[in-house]
Amino acid sequence: MRRSIIDSFNYAVSGIIASIKTERNMLIHYIIAVGIVGLSLFFNFTRTEFLVLLFATTLVLVLEMINTAIERIVDMITKDYHPYARLAKDIAAGAVLIGSLNALIVAYLLFFDRLSDFSEVIIFKIKNSSIHLTFVSLILVILLTIGLKAKYYKGRGTHFQGGVVSGHSAIAFCISTIVAFLAVDILTITLTFGLALLVAESRIEGKIHTLVEVILGALLGILIGILVFQVIG
Predict the structure, then answer these.
(1) Active site residue: 23, 49, 64, 201, which one?
(2) How many CB atoms lie within 10 A of CB 223?
(3) Alpha-carbon distance 26 to 213, whole Å?
(4) C-alpha distance from residue 191 to each of 141, 183, 187, 195, 226 (Å)
(5) If you ran DSSP here, which 8-state letter would residue 152 be given?
(6) What digits encode the pLDDT tens for the residues 154-171?
């Protein structure tokens, strides 16, 4: 059962990466999603506002993937023109359009008033809670890991197993870096980085990643953690 769950997870991630690599619209939505999540760092969103923004952004990505899946199924079933095939594709595309319009409205409502006072927000004071910074850091690490795996996929195995960077190492070291900024106890920091090292070592021992891929993942996690907490926060 455990192996089946892991396989299902890997196949799901492979589907996400494949859609980014093969679909131009999905790539555009992905880049916008990364930009929106990063931009949220510069605004004093409440927890509810951030959740609404995250949901609206995620909804567009989900609908675009469903649209892609429907198009692939229709093309597999028939290569000839059929009004129902066109209708299925049009309806799926309409769902993406509605989701995109919803995201635009949400972005307008959340960003417009704040953008009017943009200089004060950016130049003078950036207010962010450690909870918000933590979630944004982890989301950025995950999104960038997926993007790098999609860009440099070697064509063997699943996208999530292996790849140019170790996602597990990136997340583990990002969490360790966050703890280092929030904790005041050197022992806690040391133990946290020790756990991150064990995660990285397990990826090498399991022959899922090479040493270089694990190091690149660790560097990605640490850099994102430093960027968000020290430079931006």
Answers:
(1) 64
(2) 16
(3) 26
(4) 21, 12, 6, 6, 19
(5) T
(6) 655 455 566 678 888 999
